[in-house]
Amino acid sequence: MLDVRDVVTHYGKIVALRGVDLSVASGEIVTLIGANGAGKSTLMMTICGSPKATSGQVYFDGEEITGLPTHEIMRKSIAQSPEGRRIFPRMSVMENLIMGAETASNADVDGSLQRVFDLFPRLKERQNQRGGTLSGGEQQMLAIARALMSKPRLLLLDEPSLGLAPLIVKQIFDAIRDLNQGDGLTVFLVEQNAYHALKLAHRGYVMVNGKITMSGTGKELLARDDVKAAYLEGGAH
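Above: the chain's sequence. Below: its structure in token form.
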């Protein structure tokens, strides 16, 4: 479904991605792990068209999307929940969710609302509350729910557990699993919490300094001593 082929991305003269190859098949959860600053979020943003790849190609469903503007990419049944949540703080929860349906031509707003409220009952309770007054965990739920409102086939999640309490992290990862298993949603997950991400994912990639250095099933990567030493010490909770 998603193919990234030999992608190089620059920020000015700085090389952020160095020939990245990565794929996500329909129905999979694939995670990309790596240290802070490894280039994970840059890859996610490059897939979405900002920044644009300097060279290489990105394909979605066999169609090249590398040079397309971001708004056109987002109309192709792809949705992103970005790092830092980026909800609309002055809008209510409900208004944020309705904004998420704006990019979809086939949006079933009532059906999508019911689905996200089933996944995140807290949002239903808070639907008239301003987004900026929610807790960090509730804002993260809202960011994911807003992305789901467009009924995407591919969901891009950038650091969904960042800064959240373990109980909230579990709720969010349970929701991702439910979406994948129950709805058949394909998920590409960028995550610093390697333990949770690899337990959840069918396959994983490890990025170091803008390059993919390892790949395998989630179980294979969890079992590797070098992955444990670099990313899991103290993180298995």
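The chain has a mean pLDDT of 91.
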